[in-house]
Amino acid sequence: MTVTHHVRVYKSEESLPREQQLAFKIAEVAADPIPVDDEVIDMIVNRVIDNAAVAAASLTRAPVSAARQQALDHAVSVSGDGATIFGCALERRTSPEWAAWANGVAVRELDYHDTFLAAEYSHPGDNIPPILAVAQHAGKDGAALVRGIATGYEIQIDLTRAISLHKHKIDHVAHLGPSAAAGIGTLLGLPAETIFQAVGQALHTTTATRQSRKGEISSWKAHAPAFAGKMAVEAVDRAMRGETSPSPIYEGEDGVIAWLLDGPDAAYDVPLPAPGEAKRAILDSFTKEHSAEYQAQAWIDLARKLHNEHEGAFTPDNVASIVLHTSHHTHYVIGSGANDPQKYDPAASRETLDHSIPYIFTVALQDGAWHHVDSYAPERAAREDTVALWHKVTTAEDEEWTRRYHSEDPNEKAFGGRVEITFADGGQIIEEIAVADAHPLGARPFAREDYIRKFRMLAEPVLEPEEIERFLDLAQRLPELTAHEVQQLTIVAKHGVLAGAPAPKGLF
Fold it and tell me: Coiled-coil stretches, from where to where (predicted)?
């Protein structure tokens, strides 16, 4: 049974035993050797495939190339076998923290993998690169890797349920540092005391502002979770050497809650598995059919439907206004409520456009489709009729959609809203959608064959057919893999693919 931990700020003169601190409670969950449920294992396999799919599609993009080159410029640590880098030959390895960095950027670059949304946002698949990198370096088998990933998902999702970071303009990767550290602790079978120190260090080093997702969004958006994963690896290494970390990191008078979040009078109720309870949080997360912010998924599906039902109706001359009535999060993060002029700028970066629901809805409405490259192309964003229609799209917060967004009832929880399209002649189209088609409650829920289809679609341009089959075979046997097979759990690009990618030089 889940245990809810009441977390508040403690003054320095108040006693808060280590065992009662949130970081220690997280560590106890990580150290609990409970077996992983079969349906959780199946979903972990799905997400390992999903991560590799989106990484394959991003191999030649500049941010991924830069991160990969940084990793390749670092040798394997002396005390392990090293870890693989997406795209590179199996024998080409680097130190695990740099593999976590390079692979984390590849996974996040296209904003195309899994998500969990509650009090905070998260992409819990970001836990996989650092945990896998350490598994490869330390010679751990598939069963250990599965246990570690289950913990990473559990901790990040549980923190996301309870503690809002974005409300205080703190980037959501502050939940990822602790979760990845906890997952690595589970993977390695570390004691709770060691994991506790790693969690504290990981949180302390991964709190940063949300400017990475505001205004003109830069390439750091993809690097931020990779940095958190890298810091988690380093935090575990430091804790294993017997070093300590700031404590109490959450509850302290000068800690994260008091100064970065809701302040000295704040309190949160954080749900965590009870001792002996299986880690099942991954089952509450969901992946993306489309390469865009998760809160845009349902809107793309609705726009696609409207295009097919009213083809040719949505020209700038015909449409007077389009209003998307939606949740607080959608309105203020990717909608017009953000008050970011860049969200309406045809010259904006791809990172900015994938956080602009006015742009995304416009293109999906006009094209009846969404593509991870073509829909963001500069010439597509600059099309005259697109810009004209785009500027007629706004969002508005709707209390009922906000309530459903935060609902604890999975049958009621929603990430969509209601669109009101008003035409120049006064006519209207009013439609709504609660969840994306690929959502577990959507029109076409994603299953194993959908993850495999997504992987094949994104990997075929850059991987040889036999490499696609090799990876899929390994991934689908994940809990049975030997340590040697875990070290081969990566994707190797076709000859010449990486040679044609940017190879920027830097300090290393």
Answer: none
Task: Output the pLDDT for position 468.
Answer: 98
Beta strands in 297-402 (DSSP E): 319-326, 393-397
Instruction: Name the E strands within 74-189.
Output: 83-84, 93-94, 116-117, 121-122
Segment holding 271, helix H or strand E: strand 267-272
Query: What letter does residue 476 receive in the DSSP assignment?
Result: H
**Three-state secondary structure of 409-443:** CCCCCCCCEEEEEEECCCCEEEEEECCCCCCCCCC
Look-up of token digits 């120190």: 197
Which CATH code, of 3.30.1330.120, 3.30.980.10, 3.30.1360.20, 3.40.50.300, is assigned to 294-433? 3.30.1330.120
**Which homologous superfamily does the CATH classification assign to the domain defined by 3-284?**
2-methylcitrate dehydratase PrpD (1.10.4100.10)
B/e letters for 158-189, b = 16+ CB within 10 Å, e = fewer, are bbbbbbbbbebebbbbbbbbbbbbbbbbbbbe
Give the residue from 187, 185, 189, 213 showing the smallest Cα distance to 200.
Answer: 185
Secondary structure in 3-state letters for 224-254: HHHHHHHHHHHHHHHHHCCCCCCCCCCCCCC
Instruction: Give residue-wise pLDDT tens across range 90-105.
Output: 999 999 999 999 999 9
Identify the pLDDT of residue 214: 74
Task: Give the model's pLDDT for residue 301.
Answer: 97
Cα 260 from Cα 176, distance rounded (Å): 16
Domain with CATH 3.30.1330.120 in the chain: 294-433
Measured between its terminal Cα atoms, the distance across the chain in Å is: 49
Write the CB contacts of 234 (distance below 8 Å, at least 6 apart in sequence): 97, 201
Domain with CATH 1.10.4100.10 in the chain: 3-284
Q: Tell me the torsion sign for CA atoms 285, 291, 296, 302.
A: negative
213-237: pLDDT as tens digits? 777 778 898 899 999 999 999 999 9
- Which residues are 84's β-sheet partners? 93
Q: Which residue, chain included where needed, has tokens 């593509």?
A: 371
**Using an 8 Å Cβ cutoff, are 210 and 220 in contact?**
no
CA distance 299 to 419: 9
Retrieve residue 45's tokens.
């396999």
Q: What whole-number distance in Å separates Cα of residue 101 and Cα of residue 315?
A: 44
Separation CA 387–CA 344 (nearest Å): 8
Contact 122, 160 (CB under 8 A): yes
Alpha-carbon separation of residue 337 from 140, 321, 327, 356, 393 (angstroms): 47, 16, 11, 11, 12
Q: Tell how strand 428-433 and strand 417-423 pair up.
A: antiparallel
pLDDT < 50 stretches in the chain: none
CA distances from 62 to 93, 105, 352, 371, 429 (A): 20, 11, 16, 19, 41
Close Cβ partners of 1 (under 8 Å, ≥ 6 residues apart): 274, 277
3-state helix vs strand vs coil in the chain, percent to 5: 50, 10, 40
